[in-house]
Design goal:
Blueprint (H helix, E strand, L loop, with lengths): L4 H10 L3 H10 L1 E3 L2 E3 L2 H23 L3 E6 L2 E7 L11
Antiparallel strand pairs: 1-2, 3-4
Protein name: DUF4258 domain-containing protein
Organism: Succinivibrio faecicola
Length: 90
């Protein structure tokens, strides 16, 4: 995304960092040319991220997952390490 000289100046003056801009851009509520994230929306987003962290931590403990999809059709899913089971050779 291209940033004007003006936004660089205002970010510097107002102590607004790039991660704040990224969160606003991706999760803010669009109203015409403006994108807003209110205090209430920030708190809700924080709760969602907290829940997502718990879920992704559990996913990592299990070695990760794969989802097979074709467009909007979900086909199958499996644990990432499910094909690495050791088989005894004869």
């Amino acid at each position: 995304m291209y940033k004007t000289r003006h936004i660089h100046q205002r970010m510097s003056q107002r102590g607004i960092t790039q991660p704040v801009i990224d969160i606003l851009y991706h999760f803010g509520i669009s109203d015409g040319d403006k994108i807003t994230l209110s205090k209430k929306n920030c708190e809700l987003l924080s709760q969602i991220f907290s829940k997502m962290k718990k879920i992704t931590d559990k996913m990592a403990e299990k070695g990760g997952f794969t989802l097979v999809a074709n467009g909007d059709t979900l086909i199958t899913t499996y644990r990432l390490n499910s094909f690495k089971l050791s088989k005894s050779s004869d």
